[in-house]
Amino acid sequence: MKVVHFTIPVSQEHSIMVQEDKLPHFYNHLHRHNETQLTWIIKGEGTLIAGTCMQRFQSGDIYILGANQPHLFKSDPDYFEKNSQKDIHALTVFVDLRGPFGKILDLPEMNNVKKFMDITCTGLQVPASYQQDISKKMLLVKEARNGIRLAFFIQLLQTLCRIKQYKSLSNTQTESAITESEGLRMNDIYQYTMAHYTENITLKQIADVAHLTPQAFCRYFKKHTLKTYVAFLNEVRINEACKKIVGEHFDSLAAVAYQSGFNNAVTFNRVFKKITGQPPKKFLTEYMQKVN
């Protein structure tokens, strides 16, 4: 049986590590590492969990994930189907600020970059308007070697630190304090929820997955996510509902509600508006106006 680790080591062969993934799906477990990472989703769709954030990701997205920030790029279920023809392609740059590169940030010319790297601890999403420029600079880093790679990476960081419209992925910096066993437990909780969100998951069921009593589970989950489990489950369900609406894979909004795990349309409409800021009908109307 494959052993799942929460903390994953990244090769220390170079101060700047570049990894290109072409796989059937993204790595399927919540994990962390000491390195700050910049990931460009060249091809692939699914759900990103990063700290307290959970949202859809798609081709073209670029994310900065902080050092030791627990995260999971969960590919959509159809990537795991038998005989699936889908695959993913991603380019990631890793840098360990505790290593040799961290000393470069102490130079006065790098003061702006050092301040920027300090705010990446909660995770950031690069605005769509900057994706083309950042992806081109990431390719320059990938193709270069030795000192030239280092120079291109510094140029990339200088560009990143000038962007003002980042979306923060998490509202807490406490994730790095999570232990190895707690990380594995949170992975089990996330995996079970995302596999069974269409079902009526009881508090006892999910507490059993975490090997805790229901009362202890409620405290544990709130401590590590700053939200209740019901709130998280609803986010998963609305996330999947939005995917169905955008993919136009539904007969009616009522059908989307039931397929996403809600027992009735009234609750679905209320929760949908609370999470997205608008009712599902308006969400659908605005989406259709954008694509037509």
UniProtKB/TrEMBL annotation:
The keyword Transcription regulation applies. Keywords: DNA-binding, Transcription, Transcription regulation. SMART domains: HTH_ARAC. Residues 187-286 form the HTH araC/xylS-type domain. Coiled coil: none annotated. InterPro entries: Homeodomain-like_sf (IPR009057), HTH_AraC (IPR018060), HTH_AraC-typ_CS (IPR018062), RmlC-like_jellyroll (IPR014710), RmlC_Cupin_sf (IPR011051). This is Helix-turn-helix domain-containing protein. It comes from Niastella soli.
